[in-house]
Amino acid sequence: MNDTDELISRALTAEDRELLARHGEPGYIRQSLGLFRGPDGWVGVLAYVTALAAFAGFAFAFWQLWSATDTLSAVRWGVVALVAFQYSAMMKSVMGTRVEANRVLRELKRVELRVALAQEANAPAR
User: Fold this and answer.
1) What angle do CA 114, 120, 125 make, to 5 degrees?
2) Which of 15, 61, 87, 90 has the least C-beta neighbours within 10 A?
3) Does 57 have pLDDT greater than 90?
4) How does DSSP assign the chain, residue by residue?
5) Does the pLDDT of residue 59 top 90, yes or no?
């Protein structure tokens, strides 16, 4: 924990601490599974399925490369294996950036909630 986190922690009220405890940061697995829910969940499913298919294609092409008897077929299977592996790795990095974007959005919603609570506390009684 750095100094800024400590200052923020000291400034929180008991109600804020309870709210943060109730809506704390989910674990990595829960965040990853969150990619498959919501309005853009189909994008996560599509990316995951294509990454799995690309990795299966990589495994098959690598096996063919390993068992190739002539140089030309080994080069062809090697290129297919390389492209499939790169696609699989790229899709996994896309999923990672979506996890980080969701974390930023979650923090932004917490800030919005704090602003709304502060406005509500400072509003004159009607």
Assistant:
1) 165
2) 15
3) yes
4) --HHHHHHHHH--HHHHHHHHHT-PPPHHHHHHGGGSSTTHHHHHHHHHHHHHHHHHHHHHHHHHHT--SHHHHHHHHHHHHHHHHHHHHHHHHHHHHHHHHHHHHHHHHHHHHHHHHHHHHSPP-
5) yes
What would the pLDDT profile of 94-117 be if each residue is shown by its tens digit? 888 888 888 888 888 878 887 887
Q: Which amino acid is at 113?
A: L
Q: Compute the distance between CA of residue 34 and CA of residue 98 in angstroms, rounded to an integer.
A: 10
pLDDT at residue 78 is higher than 80: yes
Largest CA distance in the chain: 86
Cα(103)–Cα(91) distance, integer angstroms: 19
Region at 71 (left for phi over 0; alpha for psi -120 to 50; beta for the rest): alpha
